[in-house]
């Protein structure tokens, strides 16, 4: 298909838009009820807060509706809540899929996102180009074909951007490896945290081996050590 399939526009689905509006409205009603029933705030402070809250929620809904990704013959336009980016086809270094940690733990959240990388290797999220709103494989194929056709015959990758992209991927994989290691270490940490309940330890060591301390410190050490080693190995292997 390539550039013949352009323009492409990606926005929030109508059903998710209505759900988002419902969540904002329900949250606003709860806040209004809590503030109105609070004692000692005073009429001025109460109404000033409520007006500010409603204005903030209204702006958030409006700004979210304006978020979009548009791909035309000249560039990819990514509009977020706070920022708008224009990536000319010749400036794009790559367009890649990335798995979302939020999607793994939150029902209904996007599990697969798409990012474009600019001339300097900076990563730009393409709003609503995800597995919740579109067929990611199909749309990614369209954008990649368009990029290869429209970037120009004399296009060459930026070496510095390639390094930045590689290091970003190494960081993402290191975080994933660290989280996996924490999950694998959960049972051994539970066993270690329970040892003071069944064995006698010196007082100073028993204080250090409190269950909460063992779980938190152990998870932190496992994650940090695994992530750092994974990142260093991947970077050195480039």
Automatic annotation (TrEMBL):
The keyword Transmembrane applies. The chain crosses the membrane at residues 44-65, 177-200, 212-231. The keyword Glycoprotein does not apply. Keywords: Membrane, Transmembrane, Transmembrane helix. It comes from the Bacteria. InterPro entries: CFP-6_PH. Residues 66-127 form the Low molecular weight protein antigen 6 PH domain. This is PH domain-containing protein. It comes from Streptomyces spongiae.
